[in-house]
Design a protein that fits this description.
The chain folds into 2 domains: about 5-120, Zincin-like (2-Layer Sandwich); about 135-180, no CATH class. The chain is an alpha+beta fold. Helices cover about 35% and strands about 15% of the residues. It is elongated. Bound molecules: zinc ion (ZN) (2 copies).
């Protein structure tokens, strides 16, 4: 939620909430409006939709020579969490942009970044929301039943870190994590109950 005093975000949100099917030129316009309001300078560069980002809401690349930014916005994320969240993730990337422009090229998400985001952009959007939809693969420990979720289908055998830690770092077969079948997956018929030569 926007802070009570940030009427700018509120009015921009109402303006864009009526816009259907945001195009990249719309994203650029929104980004420029935000930067103009908080920094009183235009944003130079591009803003693009991305279908490749998974866990992050957006990211930015900065060209030192031209001073241009390239912001990529996770389309699925923006569609899922809505336009108010879109404004927040743009503020986040613009805080990076602001620091890059000051020559602070390796600021990460440390104190300088947090302060910039809060003081200049009036935002608390330090981390993206967790989008459960992208954690499609679930693994369960055979022993303690703890659950690990992954965005990727892990082909190699993985073991439970918690159980290994309790066992002085030693790995046992009993700590293996098995992939839980996803809903809607094709059911693989169990071999149990069928003898050789049985015809299904
Ligand atoms: Zn960031
Ligand atoms: Zn375990």
């Amino acid at each position: 939620m926007w802070r009570q005093n940030d009427l700018f975000t509120e009015s921009l949100y109402y303006q864009i909430s009526a816009m259907e099917n945001l195009q990249e030129k719309d994203l650029l316009w929104i980004t420029d409006r935000i930067y103009m309001y908080y920094v009183q300078e235009p944003y130079t560069g591009e803003v693009k939709w991305s279908n490749r980002l998974k866990t992050s809401g957006a990211n930015i690349r900065y060209d030192i020579k031209t001073g241009h930014g390239l912001i990529q916005v996770n389309r699925q994320y923006a569609e899922k969490f809505g336009k108010l969240e879109l404004l927040e993730i743009l503020k986040h990337e613009l805080a990076h942009y602001y620091l890059y422009k000051q020559g602070k090229l390796k600021h990460g998400h440390g104190e300088v970044f947090k302060k910039t985001l809060r003081k200049i952009f009036h935002s608390e959007c330090i981390w993206a929301k967790r989008n459960e939809d992208v954690y499609r693969y679930t693994y369960v420990c055979r022993k303690c039943k703890s659950v690990y979720k992954s965005t990727k289908n892990i082909k190699r055998v993985i073991y439970c870190g918690r159980c290994a830690k309790e066992n002085k770092g030693q790995i046992k077969e009993a700590f293996r994590m098995d992939q839980k079948k996803r809903e809607g997956d094709k059911k693989i018929p169990s071999e149990k109950g069928y003898k050789k030569g049985d015809v299904k």
